[in-house]
Every structure is written in C-alpha cells, then in structure tokens.
Amino acid sequence: MKSVALILFFVMIASVAKLTAQWEKIYTNSTWPNYNALYSHKNVLFLSGNYGEQILRTSDNGTSWTDISSSFRNDIDVNIYHMLSFGNIVFAVTDSLGGPNDYFIYASTDDGVTWSVKSIIDRGPNNGAILSLAADGNNLFAISNKRSIYKSTDGGSTWVETVINYTGTSGILSFAASGNTYLAFLEGVGAILSTDAGLNWTLKNSTSSIDWIYKINNDIWGFTLFAGIYKYNLSTNEWENNFLPGSFYKPISIATNGTQLISSFSGFLTSDTRYYSSNNNGTSWSELTTETIGLGNKILSPYALAVNSSYYFAAYWRTVSGTITSSVYRLPLTTTSLTSEKSIPNSYHLSQNYPNPFNPSTTISWQLAASSFVTLKVHNVLGKEVAALVNEEVQAGMHSVNFDASHLSSGIYFYTLKTNSFMQTKKMILLR
Q1: How far apart are CA 211 and CA 363, in angstroms?
Q2: S-S: 144 plus which of 148, 288, 306, 399, CB 3.0-4.6 Å?
Q3: 342-430, what's its fold?
Q4: What pTM, to 2 d.p., does this model score?
C-alpha cells in the first residue's frame, strides 16, 4: 500500500511539473552585438550570432553546443546569412567579407557535422547581396536583397536567375513559393504576387501591408505590423485566417516541426514577448506558458523561433545600460497551454463575435466544460456553408479563432458551434 502511495505521489509531482513548466535558458553570451537567429533541421538546431559571423550547432536540444563556424571557408572571414533544411540536406549561404561578388551555397548531408561547397552564384556587381534561401518542396531559391531570384531545380547544383520587373522594386526582404505561385515582400511596397513563376507581378497585400513572408509546411504565411499574421490561400490567391493576440502586438517569427506551429508577438507598449502554438495549421492558437522570457525582450529576428520533436526554442537578445544578453530558451513541447491551465468552465457557451458588424475579420470565442470533438462552421442566409473554422478534438477551456471574410460579400451570416452534447448558433454581420 505504501509503494502505491509513493507511485501516486511521484505521478502527482510529475504532473505538476509538466503543468508549471517554464522557459529554460540553455545558452547565453554577452558578446554578440546583434540579434541571433535559429534554424532547425530534423532534431538538430543551429544558432547564428552577430549577423552570422558565428554558427553553433546542438544535437541534444541545447544541452551542449559546438562552434562550426570554421566549416565555412575558415581561411577568411565570412557571414553565414541564412540556413535552410531541404529534405535530408541542410543548406547555408555565405560570402566573404570585402571579397568578390561570389556567394557560396554550402550543403551538409550529415545534419550539419561537415559541410562542402555545393555551388557558387556570381550575383554581379549591381545585383544585390544573396541573403536568404527558400524552397517550395521541389525547388530551391536563393534570394538577393535587390531584384533577383535564383532558382535551382537540381538540388542547388545550378541556378537560373529571374529578375523581378515590378515597378518600384527597391529590395526583396523575404520570399516564398509554391509551384508557379511566388510571393515576395518588397521594402516600402509590401507583398507582390506572381502566378507565372516570376514573369509578371501584381501588388498583393492583405488589409494591411505585408511585412514578412514565410513558407511553412505547404502554406505561405505573411506578417503585418500590428494586424497579425495571415495565411495565403493558394486556391483563391487571397490572404486569410489572420491572428492577433492584442491591438499593439507585432508578430516577430513563426516556425514548425511539421505538425506543431509556434508564433511570437512583441508588445509595442509593454516590450514583452508572447508565444502561441497551434496544432491545426493555424486555424486556432493557444498561448503557451504566461511566463515570459523577461520584459525588454528586443529580439526582432524573423528567425527567432524553432521547433523539433521535443521542444520549442526561442532566441532572445537585448542590451540594457550597455550590457548585452544574447540567449536561447527552450520549452517542452508537451507543456500544457495557457488555455488548459486556466480554470475549466462549468458550462458550454458560444460568445458573440467581436467586432460585430465587422470588416473583413472578426474573432469568435467559446468555452467548453469538457474535452470534445468540436465543429465551428459559418453559413450564409441560404444555409450554404462558407467556412469551416474548427473540425477537431478540443480540450476543455476557453478558445477563440479568427474568421476572415475577405472573400465574402456584405450580409448576414450565421456561425454554429457543435460538440458531442452542445450546439449553439449566433448571427454576425459583414459590413463593407
């Protein structure tokens, strides 16, 4: 009997530990004068510091780190501008400080232990620096910070250049592709779209100007200044499904391990950083532990997050009174989200959407007294389904989802929440 009691005691302690898990610092230094970036490949993590002058690698979730900077042309100084996991290979793009116009594409087939030059891109004297890499599942892209996109159909061995001919192109800051659909974020312009593999371009912002673009899994995501994050619908060629935790929060970064998404937002007034996760490809989000990584977190790197099979990782950088703190934190992937940490409601309820009337997006919230399979659908006045916002098992607690009706006309719509034992419908008005 005593042994059973001990087992129950330790199970209870383990459960409490899981519930109260917080961000754990796994790396720090006071020497990197600029922000750091994270890249993941399988369960290996890479940390780029001081604009890529130093690269660290860990294969044990950050318990130990190895400096692999010398793997990249150790005869001269280089910048490692960006890294990308593509199939079983991890790529990096570098150049030499003060050197020629050649940009070196490195590849590693042993998860970043050893590296070799895969190819060299001569970008020309007036064609911008190649600062990032992208992929669409089949092809690789190397992106200049001016007008050129280089595409490789043979795994990075050879490259073909496409020059963006959009009027007013001043600089490409980020890029994503899916087949012949290309989206690029241009400085001072926002998002531009090409549906013919870069031959012709049109302006394609959401309700606000897009400030950064990512390719995550099979989706393209766009960030806005204070209007949240948007997912691009490749079928309708429209931005939709935005999420914003608060009016004065700016999205910073997004990452995935293939099934779990994590996004981060920086508070404009509070200077804190809030972290959210999604296991349904961004349809709904739950705030991770409320324990922030400290007020004054000024990390603004668009690659500040990473996820593997065990942990979320977050980069952190700030300077206070001349003292630099550059760190990496981790949080167990199984940590209970803020939604389930809150007290469980004793009833089911579907709230009125807010704002209402709305244009073009609104938030729908609900509470569950018990875990249940949930559907949340939107219908027009004729009863035709126009959106399925939730269709999955959902834990007990408070939940919300954003509904973007950019593709719908003005009018009255109805949204219905249905569980195993509860159903409720409410009316909302789209007013353009």
Answers
A1: 22
A2: 148
A3: Immunoglobulin-like (2.60.40)
A4: 0.72
Dist CA 340 CA 338 (whole Å): 6
How far out from the chain centre does Cα 182 lie? 18
Tally of CB atoms within 10 A around 29:
15
- Tell me which residues of the chain have a pLDDT lower than 50: 1-20, 295, 335-342
Q: How many CB atoms lie within 10 A of CB 73?
A: 17
Q: Cα separation of 314 and 301, whole Å?
A: 11
Own/partner pairs, 180-186, CB within 8 angstroms, 24+ separation: 181/220, 181/234, 181/237, 182/149, 183/213, 183/220, 183/222, 183/232, 184/149, 184/213, 185/210, 185/211, 185/212, 185/213, 185/222
The C-alpha torsion from 69 through 73 and 75 to 79, rounded to 10°, is -60
* Beta carbons within 8 Å of 408's beta carbon, 6+ residues apart: 360, 380, 386, 430
For residues 72 and 48, what is the distance between their CA atoms, to the nearest angstrom? 13
Q: In the prediction, which pLDDT does 9 show?
A: 40
Say what the pLDDT of residue 110 is.
96
3-class DSSP state of 338: helix
Token output for 230: 């948007």
Length of the chain: 432
Distance CA 392, CA 313 (A): 26
Burial per residue of 376-411, b for 16 or more beta-carbon CB atoms within 10 angstroms, e otherwise: bbbebeeeeebbebbeeebbbbbbbbbbbbbebeee
Answer for the pair 401, 240: CB distance below 8 angstroms, yes or no.
Answer: no
Instruction: Report CA torsion sign: 220, 361, 282, 190.
Output: positive
Backbone dihedral angles phi then psi of residue 167, each to the nearest 5 degrees: -60, 130
50: left (phi over 0), alpha (psi -120 to 50) or beta: left
Residue 33 is which amino acid? P
Tell me which residue has tokens 């519930």. Answer: 19
Secondary structure E strands in 22-137: 24-29, 37-41, 44-49, 54-58, 66-67, 78-86, 89-96, 102-108, 116-122, 130-135
Cis peptide before 251 (omega within 30 of 0): no
d(CA 247, CA 12): 39
Residue extents of the structural domains in the chain: 20-337, 342-430
Q: Nearest to residue 67, comparing CAs of 51, 55, 50, 82?
A: 55
Q: DSSP 3-state assignment of 5?
A: helix
Q: What are phi and psi of 187, to 5 degrees?
A: -60, 125
Structure tokens at 387: 């959106």
d(CA 33, CA 19): 35
CATH T-level fold of 20-337: Methylamine Dehydrogenase; Chain H (2.130.10)
